[in-house]
Design a protein that fits this description.
The protein has about 270 residues and is α/β, with parallel strands linked by helices. The chain has helices spanning about 35-40, 80-90, 110-120, 130-140, 165-170, 185-195, 225-230, 245-255, 260-270, and strands spanning about 15-20, 45, 65, 70, 75, 95-100, 120-125, 150-155, 175-180, 205-210, 215-220, 240. The protein is elongated. It is an enzyme of class 2 (transferase).
């Protein structure tokens, strides 16, 4: 597929342009062609911790600035990132804000676009493949399946007040698949909540570094998952998937004849 065709970028005014770009869930092959073409047109790239630096090769002539968080340490506060976007746009015309997953799914992309527009910077958006759907899919976990789940919730585990989201309480009462991002720090509270709803036997999967080579997976029930997390040493960044759809993974393994998804994945690669 020809990647040489450049993405058309909206005309820039005197204040420059900000393009918010989704890098996908982690695997560098899951970035979109439009995102690559946009990076090739960048003068400055501001990128997060969940973005593989290898993707910066698509913007070889741009200034690269890391603005992410690692182990709770911030290279920049959000206010500083906002100001950096505007100042670089004024000086260098085209700023690409490269974010993991899709920037409009708990990525603060909307906030940054709004700030830029209020300060006279033109804005554009290139969506990315969201981790909330693709990470479970890579482990053969659908978020909906006939007879198992008719809908799904996508919830942040921790609010800006550092509390468990009230939506988790509502989701625990439903029969829908529940996908929780940024929830590992609240896992005990989540488990307790689902137990209170009589769902101790409900399947749950936790996927760390989803779609990447260092991916780790823990699968169990609400009653057993904390022990599984301890044994597997699962930590952030991780996604929590709760619901009957998690059983599909085990069914696929049984049908494939493999003991784990590594063998199944290798066989699937041959198809491509």
């Amino acid at each position: 597929m020809d990647l040489s065709v450049r993405t058309e970028i909206p005309p820039m005014g005197a204040m420059g342009l900000l393009t918010i770009v989704g890098a996908g869930p982690g695997d560098v092959e899951l970035i979109t062609i439009k995102a690559i073409n946009t990076l090739q047109n960048a003068n400055v790239v501001l990128y997060d911790a969940l973005v593989d630096p290898i993707l910066l090769k698509y913007a070889p002539n741009a200034e690269h600035i890391f603005v992410g968080k690692r182990k709770g340490c911030c290279s920049y506060q959000q206010e500083q990132i906002n100001e950096l976007i505007v100042s670089r746009a004024k000086c260098h015309n085209h700023v690409v804000r490269l974010k993991g997953g899709d920037p409009f799914v708990f990525g603060r992309g909307a906030e940054e676009m709004e700030y830029a527009m209020k300060h006279g910077v033109e804005v554009a958006m290139v969506p990315g493949i969201s981790s909330c759907l693709s990470v479970p899919a890579f482990q053969n976990i659908p978020v909906t399946k006939r007879g198992a789940a008719e809908s799904f919730w996508v919830i942040t585990g921790t609010t800006k007040e550092h509390k468990l989201s009230k939506d988790v309480h509502l989701a625990a009462k439903s029969s829908a698949t529940v996908i929780i991002l940024m929830g590992m720090g609240k896992l005990s509270a989540i488990v307790k909540l689902f137990k209170m709803e009589g769902k101790s036997k409900t399947p749950i999967a936790i996927i760390q570094n989803g779609t990447m080579k260092n991916e780790k997976v823990g699968v169990g029930t609400i009653a057993s998952i904390e022990k599984e997390v301890g044994q597997k040493e699962l930590v952030n960044p991780a996604i929590i998937i709760i619901g009957e759809v998690v059983r599909h993974r085990k069914a696929m393994l049984a049908l494939s004849g493999f003991q784990n998804l590594t063998g199944l994945a290798e066989r699937q690669k041959l198809v491509y």
